[in-house]
Write a sequence for this structure.
């Protein structure tokens, strides 16, 4: 059983990270504790992630960030590290759970990339994390569809700063203090969406991937759903868009009325002595 003195800093850092997971807002008045200064998310929607940033992947190969993306597919980007005492494992386990509830598969319709926050993490340790989470995911394409990258402080900061991911090292707990968040990138590697916390509803993840993906990948049903619902960043989920729902409802009513009128006309024409050319309703 761990000593209480060693457990408390871990719990405090995790709790502070959760509190810091909300995006930065201009109307925020209360100052952050000194320990959390520089920690949190500042949304950089539309920012271009630098594709030429050098890393090593879980196999120890030298790669550029752009090398591990799937052309024409959206990407889920996470910033974690393998020796994180609690928060990272909770977040990545939550991501696995959400992905298992989505019909699209990592490695097929989208890609997942986890960049380690720890510049001292080795590829061998990243490989252990890769095998753990892709094993929990359990889909054949998962091993190639979820990549774990390690790199220098410069490379890590290049990605983190671009997506507005603030983090820092805490000497007391010997941990990185950071917020749990997913960044969704469009096929051109520009930031499109942020999802916060450690629990991601599969429906929210599914619709976020659809909305982030190339339009050619979205079915007619998905297009209708995205037309009727919009992402509520404050609540972290999709909510009905009343105006569009009314439009769809009105269009549906008109379509049903047209079908009804057509059926009446056809029935009238089939009656003995009916005037097939008049189209006059009884």
């Amino acid at each position: 059983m761990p000593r209480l003195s060693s457990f408390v800093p871990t719990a405090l850092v995790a709790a502070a990270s959760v509190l810091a997971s909300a995006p930065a807002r201009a109307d925020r008045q209360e100052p952050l504790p000194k320990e959390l200064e520089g920690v949190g998310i500042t949304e950089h929607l539309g920012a271009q992630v630098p594709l030429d940033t050098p890393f090593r992947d879980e196999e120890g190969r030298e790669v550029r960030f752009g090398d591990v993306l799937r052309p024409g597919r959206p990407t889920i980007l996470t910033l974690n590290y393998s020796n994180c005492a609690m928060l990272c494992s909770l977040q990545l386990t939550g991501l696995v759970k959400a992905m298992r509830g989505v019909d699209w598969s990592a490695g097929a319709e989208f890609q997942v990339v986890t960049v380690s926050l720890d510049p001292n993490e080795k590829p061998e340790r990243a490989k252990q994390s890769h095998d753990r989470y892709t094993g929990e995911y359990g889909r054949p394409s998962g091993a190639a569809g979820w990549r774990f990258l390690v790199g220098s402080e410069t490379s890590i900061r290049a990605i983190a700063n671009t997506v507005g991911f603030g983090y820092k090292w805490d000497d007391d707990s010997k941990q990185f203090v950071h917020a749990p968040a997913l960044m969704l990138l469009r096929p051109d590697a520009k930031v499109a969406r942020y999802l916060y916390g450690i629990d991601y509803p599969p429906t929210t993840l599914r619709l976020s991937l659809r909305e982030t993906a190339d339009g050619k990948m979205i079915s007619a049903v998905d297009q209708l759903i995205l037309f009727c619902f919009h992402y509520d960043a404050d609540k972290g989920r999709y909510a009905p868009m009343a105006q569009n729902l009314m439009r769809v409802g009105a269009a549906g009513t008109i379509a049903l009325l047209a079908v009804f009128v057509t059926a009446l006309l056809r029935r009238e024409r089939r009656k003995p002595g009916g005037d097939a050319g008049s189209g006059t309703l009884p």
About this structure: Confidence is low (pLDDT under 50) at residues 1-12, 215-227, 242-261, 276-282.
